[in-house]
């Protein structure tokens, strides 16, 4: 069931077209991540959903209710939408308990129990209830902010770069914890993030924006393995692109014959993710590979640069494990796992 519908929204700030004809559906109980380069319109889209900005044209609908139809809008505080932002925005002079219970009725008999339940839901100890925000770590503050937003029983939760102030290890933990909490509470969420890895692992649906337009929306797997265009492919991660001639499901390219997705025949460009390529030292078959020109040891993941024998392109970079790492100067063949993605020229 669709909970949130964004229907051909456009928004202009003077000469800047911040959003152009954006349409997107978000299913109830799902998590959508919005990604895109800086200035692509992510924050504007989130602010329009929240009700802090109005679209010039287009509609926002939540659970069948029209929240915005061009400039005619339901005010933000009447939308039933929760927001967790980058800094958590807790009230510094209030305790954790008071922050979480901020929107609750003062004398409500179940007030304390609800606060404790919310604290438990975000996996924090009861001993934190009397602390002030400055006595919490960044990750704990974010959990309190999430508990406060959940306490208002939102129909939709907007997450505006909520993990970006946290360091890498904590970030990953928080992302998993937040996904778990949202899942348990059955709350639909839209996340805006600069971190493509975060988007791919957090969301059921990823929406890619570029220059105010929606380039592609789909499952993380689709977006990563079957990107609409080169730019999207490279935005989401490293990619090896090769010219090819396609015939009957196989691409004839610098790596030999590689299976491809789709019905296209003839000239095309194919894309492989580096982790699809395995480097094998094999002098006899180096025409389907090339010469190793650089090896970067990186612990769990190492990078091998191979100058291809069959085509004059810059060396391709392949991520590989530290086991059986080739040496600089080795002649190697390159084996492919899975299928290549085709960009029709
Ligand atoms: N209030 C405003 N007045 C004028 N221009 C604005 C305003 N808000 C956003 N813009 C412009 O609209 C475009 C989209 O901005 P937006 O903040 O939505 O991008 P973003 O993808 O969230 O960027 P970032 O990743 O850097 O936060 C940008 O060109 C920005 O400069």
UniProtKB/TrEMBL annotation:
Gene Ontology MF terms: ATP binding
CDD domains on file: ABC_Carb_Solutes_like
Gene3D superfamilies to which the protein is assigned, alphabetical: 2.40.50.450, P-loop containing nucleotide triphosphate hydrolases (3.40.50.300)
Entry keyword set: ATP-binding, Cell membrane, Ion transport, Iron, Iron transport, Membrane, Nucleotide-binding, Transport
InterPro entries: AAA+_ATPase, ABC_SmlMolc_Importer, ABC_transporter-like_ATP-bd, ABC_transporter-like_CS, ABC_transpr_FbpC, Mo/tungstate-bd_C_term_dom, P-loop_NTPase, Transp-assoc_OB_typ2
Domain ABC transporter: 4-236
Keyword Secreted: no
Cell membrane among keywords: yes
PROSITE patterns, per database record: ABC_TRANSPORTER_1, ABC_TRANSPORTER_2
The protein's name: ABC transporter ATP-binding protein
């Amino acid at each position: 069931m669709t909970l949130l519908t964004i229907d051909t929204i456009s928004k202009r700030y003077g000469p800047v077209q911040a959003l152009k004809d954006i349409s997107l559906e978000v299913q109830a109980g799902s998590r959508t991540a919005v990604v895109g380069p800086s200035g692509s319109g992510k924050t504007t889209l989130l602010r329009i959903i929240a009700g802090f900005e109005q679209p010039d044209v287009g509609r926002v609908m939540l659970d069948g209710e029209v929240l915005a139809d061009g400039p005619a809008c339901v005010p933000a505080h009447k939308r039933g939408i929760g927001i967790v932002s980058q800094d958590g925005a807790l009230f510094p002079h209030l305790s954790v308990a008071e922050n979480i219970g901020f929107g609750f009725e003062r004398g409500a008999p179940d007030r304390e129990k609800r606060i404790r339940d919310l604290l438990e839901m975000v996996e924090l100890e009861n001993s934190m209830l009397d602390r002030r925000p400055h006595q919490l770590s960044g990750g704990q503050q974010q959990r309190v902010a999430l508990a406060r937003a959940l306490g208002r029983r939102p129909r939709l939760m907007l997450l505006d770069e909520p993990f970006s102030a946290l360091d890498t290890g904590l970030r990953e933990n928080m992302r998993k914890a937040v996904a778990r909490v949202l899942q348990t509470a059955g709350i639909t969420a839209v996340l805006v993030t600069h971190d493509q890895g975060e988007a791919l692992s957090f969301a059921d649906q990823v929406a890619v924006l570029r220059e105010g337009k929606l380039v592609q929306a789909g499952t993380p797997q689709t977006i990563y393995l079957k990107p609409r265009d080169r730019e999207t492919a490279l935005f989401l991660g490293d990619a090896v692109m090769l010219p090819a001639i396609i015939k009957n499901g196989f691409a004839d390219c610098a790596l030999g014959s590689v299976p491809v997705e789709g019905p296209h025949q003839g000239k095309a460009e194919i894309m492989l993710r580096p982790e699809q390529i395995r480097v094998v030292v094999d002098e006899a078959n180096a025409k389907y590979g090339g010469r190793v020109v650089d090896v970067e040891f990186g612990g769990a993941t190492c990078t091998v640069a191979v100058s291809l024998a069959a085509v004059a392109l810059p060396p391709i970079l392949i991520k590989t494990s530290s086991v059986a790492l080739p040496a600089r100067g080795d002649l190697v063949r390159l084996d492919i796992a899975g299928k290549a993605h085709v960009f029709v020229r």
